[in-house]
Amino acid sequence: MKIHRALLALALPAAVWIALPAGAAANQLSTGSIEFSPTVSFSHQNFKREGYGNVETTTRLDIAPTIGYCLSNHYEVTAAFLTRHQSANGTSDTALGASAGMLYNFSSQGNVTPFAGVGFGALFYDGFSFDETAVLAPVLTGGIRVLVGSNASVNMSLGYQHESNADGEFQASANRLVAGVGVSLFPWRAH
After folding, report:
1. Is 88 helix (H, G, I), strand (E, B) or coil?
2. Once rounded to an integer, what is the mean pLDDT over residues 155-178?
């Protein structure tokens, strides 16, 4: 019985999505639309070097609630508040920051809308001073969103992020490939 409920839970949203006429959900990305995309990512790693007895562990939690405002049916400006908590080998650190960017939403193909974006940001590891500040630039992303109903979308993306002074360490740098799956809500339109 549980398997039947799980299959029904998966099939029902798909049936609603297929039943929507092409372009019916595209109003989400119209001029004045507000988008809210809560994002949370978690990773844990154990690392052991051959010939050494110690195992290094790293745990990381990133939280980035993002707000977007559609300037037109294609262009959208975004802003996010960033929180990163990282623990490595018994020491932990938390950084707060912000990011901004621009998304281009391509023309919808049915209920699927491809998008591409560029942005930048900063993470402050030593309070809101410029000591131990990581700079995120460029932040590049591309993906698709599947519009669901008139107030939501399911998003899949792949991106690249360069971080100068990575993790707040002076002259360290990091390059990250970031894959994501998430949900966006379109709670209202500013007219």
Report:
1. strand
2. 91
CB 70 within 8 A of CB 33: yes
Nearest to 86 by CA among 126, 49, 44, 127: 44
Q: Give 189's DSSP letter.
A: B
Ramachandran assignment for 23, one of left (phi > 0), alpha (psi -120 to 50 degrees), beta (any other): left
* Enclosing H/E stretch for 2: helix 2-19
DSSP secondary structure letter of residue 72? S
Instruction: State which amino acid sits at residue 49.
Output: R
Which pLDDT tens digit goes with each residue over 67-100? 999 999 999 999 999 999 999 888 999 999 999 9
Tokens of 90: 């018994």
Tokens representing residue 158 in the block = 């792949």
Q: Which domains does the chain have, with CATH numbers?
A: 28-185 (2.40.160.20)
| pTM given for the model | 0.78
* CA pair distance 18, 105, nearest whole angstrom: 21
